Amino acid sequence: MTTTSPEARDSDTPRRQSRLFCRYYDNNHNPSYLLRPVKQEDEWDHPYIVRYHDIISHAEIQKVKELALPRLRRATISNPITGVLETAPYRISKSAWLTEYDHPLIEKINQRIEDLTGLEMDTAEELQKDEPDAFKELGTGNRIATWLFYMTDVAAGGATVFPDVGAAVWPKKGTAVFWYNLFATGEGDYSTRHAACPVLVGNKWVSNKWIHERGQEWRRPCPLEVSP
Fold this sequence. Notes:
Blueprint: H1 6-9, H2 14-17, E1 22-25, E2 38-44, E3 49-53, H3 58-68, E4 73-74, E5 77-78, E6 85-86, E7 94-95, H4 104-117, H5 134-138, E8 143-150, E9 156-157, E10 160-162, E11 167-169, E12 175-180, E13 195-196, E14 199-201, E15 206-212
Antiparallel strand pairs: 1-2, 2-3, 3-12, 4-7, 5-6, 8-12, 8-15, 9-14, 10-11, 10-13
């Protein structure tokens, strides 16, 4: 017997759609966006997933690709028995990681994410860490939130899916999606577990920023009381 969450049963219904809105957003009057707020669209209500439109330009995308291309390496997984990093037939993507020291554009993009999320970027990941004790080694806590740039359109396939709630977010070049992986209490929001659907036609470029708990104590404080 299988069970389906209320959120999944309610996926893509008129009732859910009525709770999703678009707006111009300046993150509580952030000076960088007072005169030119960004376009923000609700993709899902629970977990709350938002998309930012026209948030990275074609020229910026091309520069990021140029920086990343010579560094691309086959993505790996951690062997659950040995802990050794290895490739897997079901994971065929390639990854490269850039820091603000590689090019001034990376620092500019990091600042853009900080301005729009209100979260500290100094403790966000710059390099991918696949080891089981990655968070412990970083000393920056768990991944509190995820910011994901879509840097290409995809003709078929390639959606980011959240199976527990039946959500699917489709790639659209120049946009980014953002969601919290943790509740404000620090507990994990397991409804944000996600995966990438296979690309059926074309190719897919994404760039993600994993934001960590440390440094967010005053920016996203833990509530004094937990709602039942």
